[in-house]
Specification:
The protein is an alpha/beta fold. The protein has one domain (about 5-230): TIM Barrel (Alpha-Beta Barrel), CATH 3.20.20.70. The chain is about 45% helix and about 15% strand. It is built from eleven helices and eight strands. The protein has helices at about 15-20, 35-40, 45-50, 65-80, 90-100, 125-130, 135-150, 160-170, 195-200, 210-215, 220-230; strands spanning about 5-10, 30-35, 55-60, 85, 110-115, 155, 175, 205-210. An eight-stranded parallel β-barrel has the order 1-2-3-4-5-6-7-8, surrounded by seven helices. Helix 4 (about 65-80) runs parallel beside helix 5. The longest helix has 14 residues, at about 135-150. The chain is globular. Bound molecules: cytidine-5'-monophosphate. Cytidine-5'-monophosphate binds next to strand 8 and helix 10.
Amino acid sequence: MGKDVIIACDFPSKEETLRFLDKFTGRQPFVKIGMELFYAEGPEIVKEIKARGCRIFLDLKLHDIPNTVERAMRSLAGLGVDMTNVHAAGGKKMMEAAVRGLTADDGTKPILIAVTQLTSTSQEMLNDELLIPANIKDVVASYAKNARDAGLDGVVCSPLEAGFVHETCGSGFLTVTPGIRFKDAAADDQTRITDPSGARSLGSDYIVVGRPITKAADPIAAYERCLRDFGVI
Ligand code: C5P
């Protein structure tokens, strides 16, 4: 399992997304579909990209009562997605329900990962606004352990946290890491970033790369550079 580059297809419409994917003739990249595209286009966009042979990480970050999450996950499993996620803040029972909903009759299931703390959450916000009186790193560790104990496969985290998560939850627990930039490029709005080869040495299992590929003059070359530097090819 693992060691691949996932392209974040953060486009507003099916047309733009497919125009982008059309450039990848003869290739089937692993793509991430987020809320923007899924809410605009519905499940059809997943089916359409899946029909092209691409693997799909459906990034909808479910967070609701266990019964609702279980049933929603059953719907998502029916779409044939390869990876999806929940908020660990929903608790162990919710995550266990998510695993049940995703698991097929033959016992197989897509990769299920958890968001521990959003990267937009600061220490101050955690303590003063959410009234969680703990260190954010301890919260990440505790939520990651809850995810592991609930039967999830890994977490979304910064590449800089990948080693720490592996130490806490075991080397087989997946780290899926956005915040990737080439050394010679702009950081955009990302702050705690590293390049694909840095993510590789830090132990990331999957890197999620958006703008460095989608906005590149030559997206195929940028994708191949990620694959090479991350050690996939
Ligand atoms: O364009 P860029 O490479 O920054 O895209 C990264 C992708 O990963 C985006 O889809 C963003 O929403 C997502 N993401 C993130 N940080 C997180 C979780 C998800 O950048 N903590």
